[in-house]
Design goal:
Elements (H helix, E strand, L loop, with lengths): L3 E4 L3 H12 L4 E3 L6 E5 L3 H11 L8 E3 L6 H4 E2 L3 H10 L4 E7 L13 E5 L4 H10 L3 E2 L14 H8 L5 E4 L10 E4 L6 E4 L5 H8 L26 E4 L1 H14 L2 E5 L13 E5 L4 H18 L3 E5 L8 H13 L7
Parallel strand pairs: 1-9, 2-9, 4-7, 6-10, 12-15, 13-14, 13-15
Antiparallel strand pairs: 2-3, 3-8, 4-8, 5-6, 6-7, 10-11
Helix pairs in contact: 1-5
The structure holds threonylcarbamoyladenylate and magnesium ion (MG).
Length: 334
């Protein structure tokens, strides 16, 4: 199969993408978080092809992307007032709501669960595509299962070229980390995956959140190893880094990702490359996956990430770094 590259800024390319999706094809499209691998959420055969293209286990549900909040009522039932309030406040945006599923809708996308994940993405190309398409788009991140999510069309091609009909290019994703997932199907709202919209942001409307429960949610984002580069990755605190680097770099070629500039005390003879990461959590999240991909392409024996501060606004970045470290080098799902 040849994967077409379509330009999200061109109306005829958008129409082409919508027509492909209507015919049951797979089209990757940009969102503000990461690129999604889209298929018609009402076409179970098309959705089955997403699982095959990604190598994703069939029991992992997909998010259904919708054009506007009022579409929630088509896909979900018993929608609490809170869902409407959250939608009004955060949509279009990087928040996925888990709700009770309308029986018979999105059977394959929701992997047979009684619940469904819904989101209105905050990207003009995604919204234009949804508008033209006129239905819901089931879309996981457009990467092979377990690997780093794509934040540019070129990343999608690196992962899925020849396995999908097209990719709609909408430039680099601005958020860069997957959406916050909030489960509203239980007794108390619970965050299943941290993202750019934080517990504090949500708390303003929600009040008390249920504590995170690692055992309960069915989310690959909750598997320990995920979002992983092919190169082994080690996380270090700034203190560990200062005390152990000389030893580490004597044995291995390293790529070091840290929030400070290349330090003078680091001898140039050491076999390492330095990548300076942003000091602000939103900017860090926006570039993290692209930097990890670059590190894989440059090639070295190990990636060392010096951890950002342990503060609430860094939760999503910490979450992805921990999973990347757990899965790195293991080639999860391949
Ligand atoms: O930002 C995002 O959310 C991106 C863009 C493309 O929208 N999508 C994304 O999809 O990250 P994916 O499939 O890689 O992750 C979706 C997560 C999975 O962890 C899945 O298990 C969870 O959402 N999920 C979907 N439906 C669910 C449900 N009914 N109950 C619990 N978790 C659900
Ligand atoms: Mg994913």
């Amino acid at each position: 199969m040849h994967t077409q590259i379509l330009n999200g800024a061109r109306t005829d390319d958008l129409s082409r993408a919508a027509a492909l999706l209507k015919s049951g094809a797979l089209v990757a499209f940009p969102t503000e978080t990461v690129y999604g691998l889209g298929a018609d959420a009402s076409n179970d055969a098309a959705v089955a092809r997403i699982f095959a293209a990604k190598g994703r286990p069939a029991d992992h549900p997909l998010i259904v992307h919708i054009a506007k909040a009022t579409d929630m009522a088509y896909w979900a039932c018993e929608i609490p007032d809170l869902a409407w309030k959250l939608a009004e406040r955060f949509w279009p945006g990087p928040l996925t709501l888990i709700l009770h599923r309308q029986p018979g809708r999105a059977n394959a996308a929701s992997a047979g669960l009684p619940t469904i994940g819904l989101r209105v993405p905050g990207h003009p190309v995604a919204l234009a595509l949804l508008e033209q398409f006129g239905g819901g788009l089931a879309a996981p991140s457009a990467n092979r299962f377990g690997r780093i999510s794509p934040t540019a069309a070129a990343h999608v091609l690196a992962e899925l070229e020849g396995r999908i009909e097209a990719v709609l290019d909408g430039g680099a994703c601005t958020v860069g980390l997957e959406s916050t997932i909030l489960d509203l199907s239980g007794e108390r709202p619970r965050i299943l995956r941290p993202g750019a919209i934080t517990a504090a942001d949500i708390g303003v409307l929600v009040g008390e959140l249920a504590p995170a429960d690692a055992a309960a949610p069915r989310a690959p984002g909750t598997l320990e190893a995920h979002y992983a580069p092919g190169t082994p990755l080690r996380l270090m605190t700034p203190e560990q880094f200062e005390s152990e680097l000389a030893e580490l770099s004597a044995d291995e070629t390293l790529i070091i990702m840290a929030q400070r500039e290349y330090p003078g005390w680091l001898a140039t003879s050491m076999r390492c490359r330095w990548i300076t990461m942003p000091a602000d959590p939103a900017a860090y999240g926006a570039v993290l996956y692209a930097r990890l991909r670059e590190a894989d392409v440059i090639g070295c024996q190990r990636i060392v990430v010096v951890l950002p501060p342990r503060e609430a606004q860094w939760e999503a970045v910490h979450d992805r770094l921990m999973r990347a470290a757990a899965g790195a080098g293991a080639h999860v799902g391949e």
